[in-house]
Design brief:
Belongs to the DP1 family. By secondary structure, this protein is mostly helical. Helix content is 77%, strand content 0%.
Length: 182
């Protein structure tokens, strides 16, 4: 049976008519809300399609979240551990910096998470699915998320804590320090 014949089959035509009817009904219902109408005007995406897409995305997030805690931890540890060992074996230092920065940010994040996990899980239902996406953002070289978070969050916190402890071991000159045996 060819595609043309399949489209002309009475069962297919009936299903298409019913689907179009329900899409039209959904479109009428969504028209009652200005948010959907504005969204449709700005994006040129029919509001019924946008609504169905959002429902599908939520369903996928919900289904992923069922087993997301171990998957999130595996993604946050297994691949970075492998790539960190691989980076240590290469002669350059740029990949070492990427993974050392990742581990600092990942550890900082896990430390903060350990204090507030119950509260976060209560108020944020798809936490582990979102955490998995966050970890991928941290890891992937295309985004350099770990380096961005290190520069904007971890380093300022470290500098603030380091400054408050009154450490006198810091060097204020920009001259290189020579280390030698005496």
């Amino acid at each position: 049976m060819s595609a043309q014949n399949l489209q002309q089959h009475p069962a297919v035509r009936t299903a298409q008519d019913k689907a179009n009817y329900y899409l039209h009904q959904l479109d009428k219902e969504l028209s009652k809300y200005s948010l959907f109408t504005t969204f449709e005007q700005r994006t040129q995406v029919p509001k019924s399609y946008a609504f169905i897409g959002a429902v599908i995305i939520l369903a996928v997030f919900h289904s992923i979240n069922v087993s997301a805690a171990p998957v999130s931890n595996l993604i946050g540890w297994a691949l970075p551990a492998y790539l960190s060992v691989k980076a240590l074996e290469t002669p350059g230092h740029q990949d070492d910096i990427q993974w050392l920065t990742y581990w600092v940010v990942f550890g900082f994040f896990n430390f903060l998470e350990s204090f507030a996990l119950r509260v976060v899980l209560y108020y944020f239902p798809w936490y582990f699915a979102t955490k998995t996406l966050f970890i991928l953002w941290l890891q992937l070289p295309a985004f350099r998320g770990a380096q961005a978070l290190y520069a904007t969050v971890v380093k300022p916190v470290f500098v603030n804590v380091h400054h408050k402890t009154g450490s006198t071991a810091t060097t204020t000159t920009s001259e290189p320090v020579a280390v030698g045996l005496e």
